[in-house]
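Data availability (excerpt). The following record was deposited with the supplementary files.
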Amino acid sequence: MAKLTKNRKKALEKFDKKQAYSVNDAVKLAKDTSSTKFDSTVEIAFNLNIDPRKADQQVRGAIVLPAGTGKTQRVLVLTNTKAKEAQAAGADYVGGEDLINKIKDENWFDFDVIIATPEIMAKLGPIGKILGPKGLMPNPKTGTVTMDVAKAIDDVKKGKVEYRADKEGNVQTIIGKVSFDDADLVKNLNAIVSEILKVKPQTVKGAYITSVTISSTMGPGIKIDLEAK
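Predicted structure:
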């Protein structure tokens, strides 16, 4: 068993690991148990009663957080038809096969999100195995394959986050930074909870969300009771 650090031990003394807290209290605890010297990211994790192996129980999408993410996202737009529009909308990098080849040949990844127009998607085949594991492959379900590149760029810059259930039915995404006001973290948390409920597969029987936790970078997980006030 890994030895508890002094900071970790101090953090664990501030709450009951077995107890589930209200959203407001959980947010306060996540901030209070953060011990990093940098502005930690705050994440939320769901365990869902789904079977991701079934096509009708996939949970995947994206949402623009109302209070943003606290992170500046660098956007790459791959397109043969919307370059001027992408540049005008504030994309950090715009190109076509030249930048696809740069990723393939130079292992270039000076960006956080790729937005692509439909006509160039076929060209991404050679780098699909590179982009996929990094979570960078554009997808219509998350709004990153679109002809409306201006809106897609705006959404990313405002605080768009993607979510996707893993093979165990877990969904994890960021909801902000420890430096955020409690109210903004609560606003973002409630928005992602509403989003996850909205995309509940119709074939799911019984309880859908089986657990929810919130944590800061390197901080302990705080259980949330979504019904608690």
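Summary of structural features: The mean pLDDT is 93.
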